[in-house]
Amino acid sequence: MAKLVYSMITSLDGYAKTEEGGLGTGADDPEVHTFIGDVFRPFGTYLYGRRTYETMVWWETAHTEPDVPPHILQYARDWQAAEKVVYSTTLGSVSSARTRIERTFDPDAVRRLKAEADTDLTIDGPDLAAQAVVAGLVDEYHLFTTTTVVGGGTRFFPDGVRLDLDLVEQRTFGSGLIYARYRTR
């Protein structure tokens, strides 16, 4: 059975999304971006909410930008090769290959995806991921924590959920960003 991994860049005070955007510095560092690409290269399916998909769809054409650094080109290739499922009631169509729209998040359908998948899946976007967390579907949490306190927004972990996790891996980057991977007990 494949794992479902929830991963996002977060502020130091635990927010995955702010009202005005921007969670601080560190994620745009080539060393960090290369690491993120290496971590997620083996993943075969990305589950997105509409807003996250609209941000990530840039990777569909990133390889056409002039003077693309190798780490960006590699991430674009990996993203293009993966299956994408976008959960949205408002999105009319998708503009990337290997992508389909689901109108509602169905925990049982995600359980089937996990059971049938040959490679791990990732869920991105705090609103969508909250549904998977509450349903007990998330096997691992990958947090990329910046050095910025933003004071509000949407938290990485939904309110009202208690989780007991084991720290499996951690790394600190020169930019100050901290990576921590936790496994659900």
TrEMBL record:
In this chain the Bacterial bifunctional deaminase-reductase C-terminal domain maps to 3-178
Query: SUPFAM superfamilies from the xrefs?
Result: Dihydrofolate reductase-like
Q: Which domain of life is it from?
A: Bacteria
Q: What is this protein called?
A: Dihydrofolate reductase family protein
Q: Which organism is it from?
A: Kineococcus glutinatus
